[in-house]
UniProtKB/TrEMBL annotation:
Native source species: Crypturellus undulatus
Membrane spanning stretches: none
Keyword terms, alphabetized: Coiled coil, Exocytosis, Transport
Location of the Exocyst complex component Sec10 N-terminal domain: 29-137
Coiled-coil ranges from the UniProt annotation: 40-78
One of the record's GO cellular component terms: exocyst
Similarity comment text for this entry: Belongs to the SEC10 family.
One of the GO biological process terms: Golgi to plasma membrane transport
Family matches, as Pfam families: Sec10_HB, Sec10_N
Name of the encoding gene: Exoc5
Origin superkingdom: Eukaryota
Residues of the Exocyst complex component Sec10-like alpha-helical bundle domain: 148-699
Name used for this protein in its record: Exocyst complex component 5
C-alpha cells in the first residue's frame, strides 16, 4: 500500500501507552515524546542499513555489467571470424558447383550423341528387318508392346519420307513395309481406343490417345470418340435437352482423355449442330413451311429460342478463344435459309390473320362492310351539316351496333404482340427497327383504320339529324369503346414496340405515325359534335310537346300548386342522363370540352325558349322555379362557365316578377349590371303588365 505519513504517526501514537484517550488512560506527552525519539532512532539505523545494502548491490551490478560487455565483445570477434569462414566456404562451394556443372555438360555432350547413336542403331536394326521382310523383334510380335511399336513405326515412317525415290519404293512395297505396318498399327490403336471407350476405361483411352496424337489417324480417333459418345444419347423427344446433357457429360470426360479437350468438345458440338439439330429443325419446319404459316412461325420461333438457349448453356464450356462467334456461326448455318425471308412470311401471315379476324366479326353481325366516303367532300358535307343542320343525305341506321369489339381488338393485339416477340428474336439487329415498323404498320392498318376508323365513320353516318325524333345517340358508345381500345393500342406501343425501336431513326417515324392516327381520330370525334345537335333537338321536342302557354300565365293566379313545370322535369332528366353518358364515354379534357359545348347550347335553348312566352306575376315565379331547376342540372356539368350562364339567366328571370319601382335597382345589381340593356329590355317586355304606363316609365 502507498505510504502515508499522517496515518503512520497516528498508528504509532495509538500503540504507545498514554499516547491517546481511547484506552481510558490519561494522556502522557513525555512518554509519547520518548516513544517518538526512540522510533526515529530506529528508523535512522534502518535507513543506514538499507543504504549500505543498496551501495553493495550497485557495486555488484557495475561489476557484472563490465563482465557482460567484455563477453559481448568476445562474441562479436567470434562472429566475425565465423562469417569470414562462411564466405570462404561459399566461394569454395561455388567453385565446386561450377566444376560439377561443367563436367555435367561435358558428360551430357558425350551421352546425348551416344544415346542418339544407340537409338539410330536400333532404328537401323528395325529398318533392316523391314527390308528383309522378317520382323523378328519382340516389340513387333508382342501385342502388349503396342505403344513401343507405335513409337518405332512413327519414327521409321518419318525416315521413309526422306529416302530417295527408288529406295522409298522398295521400302514401301516390301512384304512388310513400314507404311503397311503404320496403317495396321494405327487401326489397332483406334480399335483399342474404341474398345476402351466402350468399357469406360478412361486411363487406357488417355494412353492410346496420347500415342495416336502423332499419327495421321488422330482425327479419326476423335471422330470415333464423338460418334460413340452420341450412341444412345438422343432417345427422348427433346433433342435440345439431350444435347445439353451429352455435352455436360463429355465436358467432364474429355479433359481426362485428350491433351486438347477444347478442340474435341468444339468438334462434338459442331457435329451435334450440323447433323442432329439441323436435321431436326428441317423436319419440323419444312412440314409447315408452305401449308401452315402460323404453325411454321411458331415452330421457327420455338426452335430458334431453344437453340439459342442451348448455345447459352454451352458458353459455360471451354471451346477456345472466340466461342461466342463459333456458336453464332453454328446457329446461323442452321437457320439462315429460314431467317432470310422471315419478315415476309410474318407480314403475310399477319395480314391474312388480321383480315380473317375482322371478317369473322362482321360476318357474326351479318354486316356487309361498306365503303364510306372519305376525303375533302365528305368532310365538307359533315361540316355543313354541323353548322346548318341541313340534311345532306340519309343517316345510316346502325340499330345500336357500335361495330367495335373488345374480343377482336384483343385478338389483333395478341397476334401483333406475338409478331413483335418473334421479330425481336428472329430479326438481324440491323433489320430489327425496320421489321418492327412493318409489323406496327399492319396493326395500324387493321386495328386503327379498318376497325376503329370504320366504326367511327359508321357512327358518324348513323347520327340522326337535329330535327329527327329519334333519340338513339349510339355515337357516344362508339366514342367510349374507341377510347378504351386506343388505350390498349397505346399500351402495346409502349410495352412491345418502343423497346425494339428506341435507339433507331424509326422511333421518330413511329411516333409521327401514331400522332397522325390520333389527329385523324380526333377529327372524326370533332365531327361527331352532331350528337350534341341531336341532344338539343330532343330537348326542343320535349319543350314543344310538354310546355304550354298557360304554364306561365295561369287562369287562376291564386291556385297554382306545382313548384316547376312538367317540361322542366323531363328536360332536366334527359340532360342528366346525357351528361352521365358523356362522362362515361370520354376521359381527360375531352369531357370538359364536350360538356362545355353542350352546356352553352343548353343555356341558349332555354334562353330562347323562355322568350317565347308572356308571364304573369305567378307565371314569372314559376319560370324562376324552372330556371332554378335548370341551374341545379347545370351544376352536374361541373363547368364554371355553364353555371355562370344559368346564374345570369336566373337573375334575368327576376325581372319578370320584381315590382316596377325596383326594376332599376335590380338591373344595376352585380349579375345584371354588365349585360346589354337590350337584353334586359327584352325580358321586361315578356311581362303581361309591360304595356302599363307605370312599368314602361320606371324601366325607361
Amino acid at each position: 500500500e502507498p505510504f502515508v505519513a499522517d496515518e503512520y504517526i497516528e498508528r504509532l501514537a495509538w500503540r504507545t501507552p498514554g499516547g491517546g484517550s481511547r484506552g481510558g488512560e490519561a494522556f502522557d506527552p513525555k512518554r509519547l515524546l520518548e516513544e517518538f525519539v526512540n522510533h526515529i532512532q530506529e528508523l535512522q539505523v534502518m535507513d543506514e542499513r538499507i543504504q549500505r545494502k543498496v551501495e553493495k548491490l550497485e557495486q555488484q551490478c557495475q561489476k557484472e555489467a563490465k563482465e557482460f560487455a567484455k563477453k559481448v565483445q568476445e562474441l562479436q570477434k567470434s562472429n566475425q571470424v565465423a562469417f569470414q569462414h562462411f564466405q570462404e566456404l561459399d566461394e569454395h562451394i561455388s567453385y565446386v558447383a561450377t566444376k560439377v556443372c561443367h563436367l555435367g555438360d561435358q558428360l551430357e555432350g558425350v551421352n546425348t550423341p551416344r544415346q542418339r547413336a544407340v537409338e539410330a542403331q536400333k532404328l537401323m536394326k528395325y529398318f533392316n528387318e523391314f527390308l528383309d521382310g522378317e520382323l523378328k523383334s519382340d516389340v513387333f510380335t508382342n501385342s502388349e508392346k503396342i505403344k513401343e511399336a507405335a513409337d518405332i513405326i512413327q519414327k521409321l515412317h518419318l525416315i521413309a519420307q526422306e529416302l530417295p525415290f527408288d529406295s522409298l519404293m522398295v521400302f514401301r512395297f516390301s512384304p512388310h513395309s513400314s507404311a503397311g505396318k503404320y496403317h495396321d498399327l494405327e487401326c489397332q490403336l483406334i480399335q483399342e481406343f474404341t474398345s476402351a471407350q466402350r468399357r469406360g476405361e478412361i486411363s487406357r483411352m488417355r494412353e492410346v490417345a496420347a500415342v495416336l496424337l502423332h499419327f495421321k489417324g488422330y482425327s479419326h480417333c476423335v471422330d470415333v470418340y464423338i460418334k460413340q459418345c452420341q450412341e444412345g444419347a438422343f432417345l427422348r423427344n427433346d433433342v435440345f435437352e439431350d444435347a445439353a446433357i451429352l455435352c455436360q457429360r463429355v465436358n467432364k470426360q474429355v479433359g481426362e482423355v485428350f491433351s486438347n479437350p477444347e478442340t474435341v468438345l468444339a468438334k462434338l458440338i459442331q457435329n451435334i449442330f450440323e447433323v442432329k439439330l439441323q436435321s431436326f429443325v428441317k423436319d419440323q419446319l419444312e412440314e409447315h413451311r408452305k401449308s401452315d404459316a402460323e404453325q411454321y412461325l411458331k415452330n421457327l420461333y420455338d426452335l430458334y429460342t431453344r437453340t439459342t438457349n442451348l448455345s447459352s448453356k454451352l458458353m459455360e464450356f471451354n471451346l477456345g478463344t472466340d466461342k461466342q462467334t463459333f456458336l453464332s456461326k453454328l446457329i446461323k448455318s442452321i437457320f439462315i435459309s429460314y431467317l432470310e425471308n422471315y419478315i415476309e412470311v410474318e407480314i403475310g401471315y399477319l395480314k391474312t390473320r388480321s383480315a380473317m379476324i375482322l371478317q369473322r366479326y362482321y360476318d357474326s353481325k351479318n354486316h356487309q362492310k361498306r365503303s364510306i366516303g372519305t376525303g375533302g367532300i365528305q368532310d365538307l358535307k359533315e361540316r355543313i351539316r354541323q353548322r346548318t343542320n341541313l340534311p345532306l343525305g340519309p343517316s345510316i341506321d346502325t340499330h345500336g351496333e357500335t361495330f367495335l369489339s373488345q374480343e377482336v381488338v384483343v385478338n389483333l393485339l395478341q397476334e401483333t404482340k406475338q409478331a413483335f416477340e418473334r421479330c425481336h428474336r428472329l430479326s438481324d439487329p440491323s433489320d430489327l427497327p425496320k421489321n418492327a415498323f412493318r409489323i406496327f404498320s399492319m396493326l395500324v392498318e387493321f386495328l386503327c383504320t379498318e376497325h376503329i376508323d370504320y366504326a367511327l365513320e359508321t357512327g358518324l353516318a348513323g347520327i340522326p339529324s337535329s330535327d329527327s325524333r329519334s333519340a338513339n345517340l349510339y355515337f357516344l358508345d362508339v366514342v367510349h369503346q374507341a377510347n378504351t381500345i386506343f388505350h390498349l393500342f397505346d399500351k402495346q406501343f409502349n410495352d412491345h414496340l418502343m423497346p425494339l425501336i428506341s435507339s433507331s431513326p424509326k422511333l421518330s417515324e413511329c411516333l409521327q405515325k401514331k400522332k397522325d392516327i390520333i389527329e385523324q381520330m380526333e377529327v372524326k370525334l370533332d365531327m361527331g359534335i352532331d350528337t350534341l345537335n341531336c341532344m338539343i333537338g330532343q330537348m326542343k321536342h320535349i319543350l314543344a310537346a310538354e310546355q304550354k302557354k298557360t304554364d306561365f300565365k295561369p287562369e287562376d293566379e291564386n291556385n297554382v300548386l306545382i313548384q316547376y313545370t312538367n317540361a322542366c322535369v323531363k328536360v332536366c332528366g334527359y340532360v342528366r342522363k346525357q351528361v352521365e353518358k358523356i362522362r362515361h364515354s370520354m376521359d381527360g379534357k375531352n369531357v370538359d370540352t364536350v360538356l362545355m359545348e353542350l352546356g352553352v347550347r343548353f343555356h341558349r335553348l332555354i334562353y330562347e325558349h323562355l322568350q317565347q312566352y308572356s308571364y304573369s306575376c305567378m307565371g314569372g315565379m314559376l319560370a324562376i322555379c324552372d330556371v332554378a331547376e335548370y341551374r341545379k342540372c347545370a351544376k352536374d356539368f361541373k363547368i364554371p362557365l355553364v353555371l355562370q350562364l344559368f346564374d345570369t339567366l336566373h337573375a334575368l328571370c327576376n325581372l319578370l316578377v320584381v315590382a316596377p319601382d325596383n326594376l332599376k335597382q335590380v338591373c344595376s345589381g352585380e349579375q345584371l349590371a354588365n349585360l346589354d340593356k337590350n337584353i334586359l329590355h327584352s325580358f321586361v317586355q315578356l311581362r303581361v303588365d309591360y304595356r302599363s304606363a307605370r312599368l314602361a316609365r320606371h324601366f325607361s
